Amino acid sequence: MFKPIVTGVSASAAILTAAGLAQHLADAQEPPIAPINCPSQPTWTAGFTFYERILLADGQFKTATVNADAAKVHQGAGLASPTAFTLNRGATVTVIGEAWDRGCNQWMEITTAEGNRWIHGNLLAIQDNPMNVGPVDPVEVALPEQPLITSQCPQAVWTEGFRFYELIALAERQYRPSVVTGNGVYLRAGVGFEAPEVAALDQGTPVIVTGEAWDSGCHQWMQVQVDGKRHWVSGDLIQ
Q1: I want to staple 90 with a disulfide (CB 3.0 to 4.6 A). Which of 118, 120, 136, 147 is the partner?
Q2: What's the domain range around 159?
């Protein structure tokens, strides 16, 4: 649909050891970090892996229109990622990046009132490409709010005012180094056990915690930075 300009992005999404790789292969029967290899793969995705975020430069952000009714917007890239809300046909969004799943589907990262989210590429028409733009109904955006975390998880008193699946970002000075406490710990593209697996990390792998979120099962998830990229890991599996 368009060619992103990417600078300073490494193709490596996580640190893998032989033990971590073996564990993931045993569980999933496929490499945890697989290069994008799709028949219709655009040339600009060379060197990137499935589910890896491909960022656009600020000057390359695209305006797009939703071309389907009740289009699902997800927490992360992939149909397995939890649905955050839906957008009605004609809603306008800003595209800031993309990713590809293992089914060779293109996913677009968009900005929303609830933060950056993901939508299937087939559900958007990039406005600077008239060939993709169809009839547009009046804009109507549905943004159902998740419950407040403390309404169901009273133990998380510090999250007052935040909602399930909402990123609680740390200020840069509050970033804290942590380590993985188990073997074959899944690094995920979004919050929740349904989010796609990006890699498997071995015990002792260093990560930097940059934020947190809570799922509707009162499970804490930590946003971590590994090799310069940010993904999610269960809060029980790092210290």
Answers
A1: 136
A2: 149-237
Within this chain, do residues 121 and 206 fall inside the same structural domain, yes or no?
A: no
Last residue of a domain, one of 95, 111, 142: 142
Distance CA 211, CA 204 (A): 20
Structural domain contains residue 217: yes
pLDDT digits (tens, 9 = 90+) for 151-175: 899 888 888 888 888 888 888 888 8
40-69: per-residue pLDDT in tens? 777 778 888 888 888 887 778 889 999 888
| Reported pTM | 0.47
Rg of the chain over Cα atoms, rounded to whole angstroms, equals 18
